[in-house]
Here is the input.
Amino acid sequence: MNILGIETSCDETSVAIVRDGRWVLSNVIRSQVELHQRYGGVVPELASRRHITTIIPTLQLAFEQAELEPAAIDAVAVTYGPGLAGSLLVGVNVAKTLAYVWEKPLIPVNHLEGHIYANWLTLPGQPEVEPPVFPALCLIVSGGHTELVLMRNHGEYTLLGRTLDDAVGEAFDKGARVLGLGFPGGPAIQRAAAEGRPGRYPLPRAWLGDRYDFSFSGLKTALLRSVEQYRKPSAARPSRKPTAQQPFPEYQPPEYLPGLPVADLAAEYQEAIVDVLVEKTARAAQDYGVAMVLLAGGVAANALLRERLRAAVTVPVRYPPPILCTDNAAMIAGAGYFLYRRGITAGLDLDVQADLPLVTRTAVTAA
Ligand code: KG4
Ligand code: ZN
Here is the structure.
């Protein structure tokens, strides 16, 4: 079964074709990073406008790369949440139009479930990825979410813990902004950390007792405090209030005196984040006797997190290749296949749901 997947929840426009939830035939990703970089983060209005201009050429390319015609598509899967409403609307409308014109089922996919199912995918020309086994423990770490979820079977999720404030990716992005490392912050911090040593400038870890919940906002505040002494006294904080001339204020990197230990601070910051994620995930894996740990979401691309988790957990730890960790449509088409097998489809009145949680499902009809 060939499923066309569409993903436009944030700042990547992506269209993919995946066979049987496992074989990626094409996965075209148009990143908007260069558009948002000067603002230091994603500007929702600019993101949705760029999706509008990019989605149709991306769709064409997905067919070209898979060397398929539209007649070969059996269903259309689309992210309908969580994400930016204006961005989600573009993908959902294109998906509904295609499903209507082709007279094929429409499958509504939760973006977070998509990230999990990236672990089932084999890229073209790559060795076959064995399907994960249950029960699995999923650590979902993205720009907007940090959740520890027990997956007993397809579609059977139990939330064990989540962040009480910032998401991990958000913590990386905010930390990078404080250190003047640019956007997106995760890869920038990872690069800077490679030149530094953790532990020289200690930062706190929020353990929260025995809970599986996370908290990262204190870490960011501690980082702010440790760079304060290096701030140039003369440096005026530019106003970031929108004006008619500048509706989207640009990001001004902070100005520091010489000597700010950027690499050491980045290394310690990354270490503090990874320490907490790994300790809680390893403990949950043991407590629930899972057969596997699955990493999912953009932060799953982090090399230190992967390495530490593998060392700390006794069962196999799986993570997608980096291109399938960050937002992409192949994971949406992949998840769509397993949803369809469970009878989940949507009508042409499907709406977006910006705050859609993973554990409950609405706006969906079981066939
Ligand atoms: O899953 P994703 O592409 O988008 C959301 O659904 O949010 O995740 C994006 C997040 C960003 O915060 C980015 O900084 C982070 O993933 N990220 C990383 C790395 N690559 C991307 N964080 C840490 N290390 C990385 N190598
Ligand atoms: Zn994502």
